Amino acid sequence: MKKKGYRSRALTMKYHGIAGSELRAAESIAEKGEAYEHRMVELPDLKEAADLGERLSEMPSTFIPMRNAIFYSVAAGYAIEVGSDYIVGGHNRDDVGVFEDTGRAFFSELQKAFWIGSKLLKDRRTTILRPLQHMSKQEVIVQASRLRVPLELTWSCHRDGNNHCWKCAGCANRVSAFDATGVVDPLRHPP
Ligand SMILES: [Zn+2]
Fold first, then answer.
1. Cα(165) to centroid of ligand 1, in Å?
2. Distance (Å) from CA 61 to ligand 1 centroid
3. 9-144: CATH superfamily
């Protein structure tokens, strides 16, 4: 988007229990990417399944009920406020198998709902883009490496701290995805 001359803004949701290190990573990446603004929205009552108790114990621990309906509605409100042409999300193909609110059907109806629900979004034709939707997590890593994305600033660990623990599920997914691509993880193996 930046190459095409768009001014980009970053949006981070500060939900219940989100790791401070994840927020710091979001800040560093927004800064490095020269985001025009990085807005953090406080959603302290929004919790992951792991913090919601027994009834959702079957769900992945990071599941947040109606996450994307909430996140994208916040983004749409922000888009109206500042006047945006696009709302860009980073869901990849692997996410769709786990969370149904990351798939094409959901976003196509959400797009319609936004235009029905807001004349401002409709008149501007503000559109949800998901440029990574057809790519696997591994393909995203390869593409990021090609585009010189500062992968050393990204955060995958589910625990808080200054360093990745390299033991939790988030870290394990990162290691296996990088290993499968052959791209060296600059965070695990600093140059
Ligand atoms: Zn970890």
1. 4
2. 14
3. HUPs (3.40.50.620)
